[in-house]
Each structure stands twice: as structure tokens, then as C-alpha cells.
# Entry
Amino acid sequence: MKVAHVNQLLSIVLLPFLNLLTAFIVTTLLFLMVGIDPWEAAKILVKGAFGYEEGIGYTLYYTTNFIFTGLAVAVAFHAGLFNIGGEGQAYIGGLGVGLVALGLGALLPAWLLLPLAMVAAAVFGAAWAAIPAYLQAYRGSHIVITTIMFNFLAASLMVYLLVNVFAEPGQMVPASRAFADSASLWSWQEFMAYWGIEFAASPLNLSIILALICCVMVWLFLWKTRWGYELRTVGANPDAAIYAGINPKRIIMLAMLLSGALAGLVAVNELLGVQHRLLLGFNTGYGFAGIAVALMGRNHPLGVLLAALLFGALYQGGAELAFEIPSVTRDMVVVIQGLIILFSGALEFMYRAPLQRWLLRFAREA
Amino acid sequence: MQDAWLWLILSLDATLRVATPLIFAALAGLFSERSGVVDIGLEGKMLVGAFTAATVAAVSDSVWLGLLMALLASVGFALLHGFACITHRGNQVVSGVAINILASGLTVVLGLAWFHQGGSTPPLTQHQRFTAIDLPFAQQLADVPVLGLFYSELLSGHNILVYLALALVPLSWWLLYRTRFGLRLRAVGENPKAVDTAGISVAGLRYRAVIIAGVLCGFAGAYLSTAQNAQFIRDMTAGQGFMALAALIFAKWRPWPILLACLLFGFLDAVAVRLQGVSLPGIGLVPVQLIEALPYILTVILLAGFIGKANPPKAIGLPYVKDR
# Structure
């Protein structure tokens, strides 16, 4: 084994696995600490996530959101940017969907309205990312801080709009009126029924196909196009990129617009697919979870897909767990999410040096 | 006139109450970031502090023990941040995000397991929390025109942590600008290599800065759950850690402007609460959300370089790698 092979083996297989393992060991300890049998909990979790059709539906429905936000973070990461604003971009994406669906819902047929609403989700999400991107590229303000601020601004704006503009009188929670029927994406149940296959009712809808298409498109874009190459170059070495004639400012804009658009698509799954109206907080947590998904998936679309599936399973399994064991809530999943970000992200290299030494010695002896 | 004065005094009084945790947390960020370690985990550390303070105070019946444990717990999370960012040179923003998410989940999971109250801790009795302190002669002087109100309402009648927060501003200034430790701390955030060349440990200094940040966030958290409120409620920081971060940037990483920024942000919050549903003559109904969002808008405008220039510490966010 050569040094290069050792490093490759380390960074693609061993380290991610060890990091994830560490996160789960700590989770196990936490379960023991609050007096729950971890093995029992794991069984409930897996069964809840994959054990029956409705559970699978829920798992994949969550997965869809995580794919969108995970890809959003990953695309920005490749350009060396940390987009913490997925939360706000998804929220504003919802505004785009809401405007199209409420404004044109009565006028347009579904085949025109749905694509239009999807484009609106992406455009609004991108627009919300455009301002931090512009400030980073042309005014030098740090993208992490501005995207955090824009999350809060999005939340304030949406509360204002929902309460003062969209809200239907007499409702407990501020929400818009229901979208027209033409603005409703087929649920997976309806889709399968069309092919004559029965599938249990769940929030899973056609958005998952959009999410998978996005995975492929992001892969094609990043590794098979000139822009993608330039984007990755800027992320790897901004100075070299300038010498190669790449304009990093434009790449920053490009990366963030794409990132925001992907985050905005969460609204397609949530609003067009499930809720069929604009409501408060439909985006909660998905933007931040996207960071964990991207870190775990090593910023590769395939990795993001797998990590999103894991998180989808954790969300759905966690809900099942909360149902079965009263002293557990979905917050357990939030803890696991935090641990994964900690060990797969911040402490990514913890095992690197010792493992490298060990593997190289092993390689020499062999 | 009398009414307007009373309104102003009461608003400022509320301002001080809201600004206190911001001051603690922003000063925490000041120490960490001046040493070159980005700290977006202020929110998480505050939350951990708040939870620990309320839990220990409720169980041990001692608010001081609660405060002490809150400081320790918050420092524990700060050390985790240091371990990831300083020892293992991990991404400081990622580590901060991890701490925030971890804190938000962990406090509820543990709270639920220990108290079975939906993630809250039991309500604290009056002697289990920090209560208002009357400054000398506050009652007697209350009737003195104009200044009496100022003294008895605004200056007097806060709990000890409010006064501590105010005292920490000059103390931080002194520590950062008038001591050897402060000089080195600022140097390590600007040019760690020079500090290293001088034979001073970069990691050691940054760890100390991160620990100070932990202590200050612990105070902020304890204030939330055992002074301002009387129990821990899930996610009770509600973005105040990020508000403090905004104040820190708005103040361009300097102690005295931090005080002003926190008071300004606190004032906006106090005013927003008071203007809820109030229709002002000539303006109409004030959108409360706009006032609440103002701190973030102001910070973004500042960051964009439209009001002065915010120059962060030069080496901020960069792990220090010693050359061979």
C-alpha cells in the first residue's frame, strides 16, 4: 500500500465511519444515562423508519427535505463558502411558492402552475442568498455572519407577512388560505395508484423525484461542467483561481445563488406536496440539519443522498420512539444531529494522525 | 412631560434587563474572537448555562451553587469548542453549530428525563433565584423630582447579575488593553505567528480566551433562568446568543461599544414590546417585527461597510499551524 492509497482509504472510508461510530457511541451512552435500553430504542427506531409502508413514506418525505438543504450546503462548501442560511432561504422559498400558488392558483392549470411555483421557490431562495453573497463577494462581509442575520430577518419578515397579509381570520396559527387544487403536487400514494400499485398514505410526494434529479444535476454541474470546475477551484485555492483567470466574485455569486435555490426547494416538498398552504415555521430545523447532512456526505451528492436517508430515518424513527417511549422526544434526534456535526465536522481529523501512523506501519510490514 | 419621563425611565429599565444577557454573551464573544477563535456557539453555551443553573438551583435549593455549576457546564462546552478548534484545528463555525444544536437537544432530553415537565425545569421559589437589590435610600429618594425616579427605578432594583454585567465592561476593557495577558490575547488574534515566535503558546492563550468565554456565557445563561425568569424553558435563549454576536460585530469587537450596542439592541426590544398593537399618530400601526429585526438589519448594513468599517481580528477563524 502506498501513502496515497492509505490516505484515500482513510478519508473516504475509515474516518467517516469512525466519526459516525463515535457519534453513535455517545448517543448510546446518553440513552443509558436517561435510563432507556439503547438496543430496544434502536429496534423501535429502525422499525419505525423502515418497518412498514407509511413509515417508509415518512422517512423518504423527510429525506427529500434533507437532500435539498444538504445539497445547498454542499454546493456552497465546494466554493469555500459556509451557507448557514438554508433555514431562511427555505422560508423565503415558501414565500415564492405561496405567492404563485395563491395568486395564480385559480387562473392556471396544474401543468403550468406547478413548474412555475417550483421555479418561484428556487428563485426566491436564491434571491435571499444573493444579498449575503453580494456582500461577501463585493463588500467583504463574512458570509457566515450575514447568512445568520438573514435567517432572523427571514423569520421576522415571514411572521409579519403571515400575520398581516396572508392570515385567514379566526385561525389559531397564522397561515394562508389553502392553495387551489391545481397547486397540489401528487402524493406518492396518488402517483403509485396511477400505475395501479397500492401505497399507504404518507406525506411522501413527487418532490422526492425532484430531489433525486437535483442530486444528479449537482453532480453533473460540479464535476462535468466548466463552471463547476471553476467553482471547485475557487473553493480549493482562491489565489490559484485568480491566476487561472477565474473571477472568484462571480463564482461566489453563482455558488450562493445555486445554494439558495436548492434550499428554497424545501418549500416545494413542504407546501406544494404536504401542507397546501403557507404557514409559520414549515422550514424549522431543515436548514441546520442540511449542515450535518453535507458534512456526513462529504459534500458529494451521493454522500448527501445517503446521509439524507439516514437523517430521514432518524427523524421518522425518532417520532416513533417518542410515541413508544413517553420520556423520549424528537429532541433526542436533535442531539444525535449535533453529535454528528461535532464528530463528522468539527472533530473530523481527530483520528487522522494516529490512524495514519498505524496504517502506514501496517503497510510497511505487509 | 412627567408621563414621558416615566415612560422613558421604564423603557430604559426594561432595556437594562434585556441587555444584561447580551452584554455577558457579547463580552464572551469578544474574548474568544479577539484571540482568533470564532464563536457562534454563544447561544448554545448560554442555553447550557441556563439549564444547569435552573436545575441545580431547584435541586440544591441554592442559587449560588446553580450559578457555579452553570459556569462549569458552560466552560465544559467551551472546552469542547477549544478541543475541536484549537487542538484538532477543526472548522470553528462547524464546531459552533454543533454546540448550538447539541445544547438545544441535550437540555430538553435531560430536562425531560429528570423532571418530566415537557423539557422545563421546576419553577424556582423566590430564594432560589437572584432577586432585586435595592440600592441605599432608593425608597426615600423616590419622591425627589426627576432624579429620584431615575435613581430608584432605573439604577436601583436590579439583581446582582445586572450590576455584574455592567461592571464587566470596564473590567474587560482593562484586561484587554491594560494587561500583559490582554496584549498577548489581542496579538494572538491578529498575528499568532509573532506570538509563537516570542515563545508564548498560541494554543494556551486561545484556550484561556475560550474558557473566559465559557464563564461569561454561563453568567448569561444563569441570568436567563434564575434572575430574569424563574425556571428553564426549552430553547429559552431564543436567538439572544446570535443577537449578542451581532452586537459584538456592530461594536467592531471593542468593549465599550459592546455596551452601547447591547443597550441599543435591548432598547429596540423593550420598545418593540411596548409598541405591540399601539398605533402611533402619523405613522399608524408600527410593525413590531421590523423593530425586532432592526438589530440584524443594522449589523448587516454595518458589515456591508455602509456605516464605518468593521475590521475583525486578522487571524479570526484560522487554526494556527506551527511551521516546522
Notes: Chain A touches chain B through 49 residues (CB under 8 Å).
